[in-house]
Design a protein that fits this description.
With 350 residues, this protein is an alpha/beta fold. The protein has one domain: 3-Layer(aba) Sandwich (Alkaline Phosphatase, subunit A). Strands 5-6-4-3-7-1-8-13-2-14 form a 10-stranded mixed β-sheet, sandwiched between helices. Strands 9-12 form a two-stranded antiparallel sheet. Helix 2 packs across helix 11 and helix 9 runs parallel beside helix 11. The longest helix has 24 residues. The two termini are 36 Å apart. Bound molecules: magnesium ion (2 copies) and zinc ion. The site of zinc ion has 6 residues, from helix 10.
Length: 350
C-alpha cells in the first residue's frame, strides 16, 4: 500500500512537471536603442533614484561588436539579437557569408507563436527590420517595407507609412495584395479580428516623446498584450524604445531621459504582465550604447543630472541585459549579443 502511494506521488509529480513544460513561454523583448548603463543611470536619478529595472534580478552583459567592427550599428546588432549571427554594419538578416538567415520571428512562428513588432521609429528602421528583412543595406527602405508585408509577423506598429504608399515604383503596397488589415488608431487595432494587423503611425519618423508622439510605446504594448491575453496563444513581441539612440546622437541629455522614461513605463507594463502570467519571459537590453555618455554631475534631490558625451556616434561598451520570468537565469553572465537569440530559442523550444 505504501508503495502504491509512493508511485502515485511519483506519477503526480511527473504529470505536474510535464504540464508545466507544456505551457509555452511567451517572450517580451524590449530593446532600448542606444541604451547603455549611463542612459539607464541618468533616467533612474532623474526619476528620483528609482527604476523598475531594480526588480530584475537576472542580469548579464552583452558584447555588441559586429562581424568586422568594434563599434556596431543598429543593423548588425539588431541582426545579432534577432537572428543570432554577427554580420557587417549596415546589413539586415544576412550573415557575413552573404546567406539570408531566419530570425526569432520565423522560429517562433514555426512553434505556433503569434508575433509582433512595436517601434517608436519607423517600422522599416534597422532595429525592427532586423526581425523580418534580409537586405544588404538598411537604407533599402522601400524593399524592407515590401519584405515586412511578406513576413510572418502578425502585428506591427510603427512609423514610415510613406515607404509603403509614396514609392519610387509608384505602387501603394498597402492596397495591392497586402495580407495585413491596416488600421490607423489603437482602438481599431485592439478590436480587429484579423490575425495580421498593421498600424503605421506616421508618414515619416515619429516625433520625439517631448513633441507629443502618439501612441506611446507603453500604450501600444498594453493594447497588444490585451489582445494576446484574449487569444490564449503563445507570443513573441519586440518593442523598441527607438529614440533613446537619437537623444544620444544629438548629445541631448533631456532627450535621452524623456525617451528612457517612456521606455521605463513600457518595461513596467511588461513586468506587470509577467507577474500575472507566469509563463512570460521579459528581456530588456540595448543594441549598443550611443554618445559615449558619462554622468558627470547632478543632484538626486532635485531629480537633476548632468552628462557629457564623447561622440556623436555609437560606442563599443557592453550593454546590460535584464531578464525576468522562466529561463531568465540563462541571461546571467557575459556573452555575445548573438547569445540572446539562442537563449530565446531555448525558451521557445524547451
Ligand atoms: Mg541602435
Ligand atoms: Mg533602432
Ligand atoms: Zn544610432
Amino acid at each position: 500500500m505504501k508503495l502504491f502511494y509512493k508511485c502515485l506521488l511519483f506519477y503526480l509529480i511527473v504529470f505536474l512537471a510535464r504540464a508545466q513544460n507544456d505551457t509555452p513561454t511567451n517572450i517580451i523583448l524590449l530593446i532600448g536603442d542606444g541604451m547603455g548603463l549611463t542612459q539607464i543611470t541618468s533616467g533612474m536619478y532623474a526619476n528620483g533614484n528609482k527604476t523598475i529595472l531594480e526588480n530584475f534580478e537576472n542580469i548579464g552583459l552583452a558584447k555588441t561588436h559586429s562581424f568586422k567592427n568594434l563599434i556596431t550599428d543598429s543593423a548588425a546588432s539588431g541582426t545579432a539579437i534577432a537572428c543570432g549571427e554577427k554580420t557587417y554594419n549596415g546589413v539586415l538578416g544576412i550573415n557575413h557569408k552573404n546567406k539570408s538567415i531566419p530570425s526569432i520571428i520565423n522560429y517562433c512562428s514555426s512553434y505556433g507563436y503569434k508575433t509582433a513588432l512595436l517601434s517608436t521609429s519607423s517600422i522599416i528602421h534597422a532595429t525592427p527590420a532586423s526581425f523580418y528583412s534580409n537586405v544588404d543595406s538598411r537604407n533599402e527602405y522601400e524593399n524592407i517595407a515590401l519584405q515586412l508585408l511578406q513576413s510572418e509577423v502578425n502585428y506591427f506598429i510603427g512609423g514610415g507609412k510613406k515607404y509603403f504608399t509614396k514609392r519610387k515604383d509608384k505602387k501603394n503596397i498597402l492596397v495591392d495584395n497586402n495580407p495585413y488589415f491596416m488600421v490607423d488608431n489603437l482602438k481599431d487595432f485592439s478590436v480587429s479580428e484579423s490575425d495580421k494587423v498593421g498600424y503605421l503611425t506616421y508618414e515619416k519618423e515619429p516625433p520625439k516623446k517631448s513633441q507629443g508622439r502618439t501612441p506611446s510605446l507603453p500604450k501600444m504594448l498594453s493594447t497588444l498584450l490585451n489582445r494576446f491575453n484574449e487569444q490564449n496563444v503563445p507570443f513573441f513581441v519586440m518593442a523598441e524604445g527607438s529614440q533613446i539612440d537619437w537623444g544620444g546622437h544629438a548629445n541631448n541629455t533631456s532627450y535621452v531621459i524623456s525617451e528612457f522614461d517612456e521606455f521605463e513605463e513600457t518595461i513596467q507594463i511588461a513586468y506587470n504582465f509577467a507577474i500575472k502570467n507566469k509563463n512570460t519571459l521579459v528581456i530588456i537590453t540595448a543594441d549598443h550604447e550611443t554618445g559615449g555618455m558619462t554622468l558627470s554631475g547632478g543632484d538626486i534631490s532635485k531629480k537633476m543630472v548632468k552628462s557629457k558625451f564623447n561622440t556623436r556616434g555609437h560606442s563599443a561598451t557592453m550593454v546590460p541585459v535584464f531578464a525576468y520570468g522562466p529561463f531568465s537565469e540563462k541571461f546571467r553572465g557575459i556573452y555575445e549579443n548573438t547569445a540572446i537569440f539562442h537563449k530565446m530559442k531555448t525558451a521557445v523550444s524547451e
